[in-house]
Amino acid sequence: MADRDAKPSTRRREPAYARIERHLWELLDSGAGINEAMPSEVDLSREFGVSIMTVRQAYNALVNAGAVTRKPFRGTWAVTHITDDLGQLTGRPYTETWQADEITSEVLTFDQRETPEHIAKRFGVAPGTVMTYLERLRRADGQPVAWDGRWMPAELFERTTREDFEKAPVFTVLARAGVRVTIMQSDINARLADPTHAIILEIERGEPLLVRQSIAMDTEPKVRLVSTSLYPARRYTFRSVTPVVEGVVNF
């Protein structure tokens, strides 16, 4: 005799697209989509006995979640995070430190302007002092991964060019211009994307952003750079390696 209190199988009522979506998440969790493309829509439609549109609906859910990206003529791939090591400053090319095939830097603004009060205070100068301002957009394999706004000493405007900052990391350009940065202090927090930066970073308004506020100093120590960097949280990861002091562990 059937048990009237028994609940119907959840899986039996599960829509086909939801079943495929769950399967795709399981593939991502096992490392799929990094070294080779995810299964094609045609292959999945045959495997699950559904239409290509049903498979596409499942894939769209992953695209909207920022988990996969579609590459023309190459298929669907997992979205890999750019990883930045907080433990060291390096002048090496981004392609050596970030796991991406192509890194580009687009200079959005390079000029001289008067410093607002909060920037002037960090440099120890009077508000309104003219300094060099650089604004860049960095991309990894075509996707925006970082917006930077950087304030630097006024004399760097004469010693450097827009092209310098498009071709090399900032600290490399500074070193070539005679400014050697030896230490950087960073504060990292989070906020939601405003309309302006959402457009620049090609994300939705209100998406989570990682925010790094940094001050870089030379050997004196004298502040040589003040910067704000914004990173889409679904595309960027910070890594920190911290030595454990015996008897002092707050974790």
Automatic annotation (TrEMBL):
Gene3D superfamilies on file: Chorismate lyase-like, Winged helix-like DNA-binding domain superfamily/Winged helix DNA-binding domain
GO-annotated biological processes: negative regulation of DNA-templated transcription
InterPro entries: Bact_HTH_transcr_reg, Chorismate_lyase_/UTRA_dom_sf, Tscrpt_reg_HTH_GntR, UTRA, WH-like_DNA-bd_sf, WH_DNA-bd_sf
Keywords: DNA-binding, Transcription, Transcription regulation
PROSITE patterns registered for this protein in UniProt: HTH_GNTR (PS50949)
Transmembrane domains' residue ranges: none
SUPFAM superfamilies linked to this entry: Chorismate lyase-like (SSF64288), Winged helix' DNA-binding domain (SSF46785)
Source organism, top-level taxon: Bacteria
GO molecular function, a single term: DNA-binding transcription factor activity
Domain HTH gntR-type, residue spans: 14-81
CDD domains: WHTH_GntR
Protein name (record): Transcriptional regulator, GntR family
Annotated source species: Micromonospora pallida
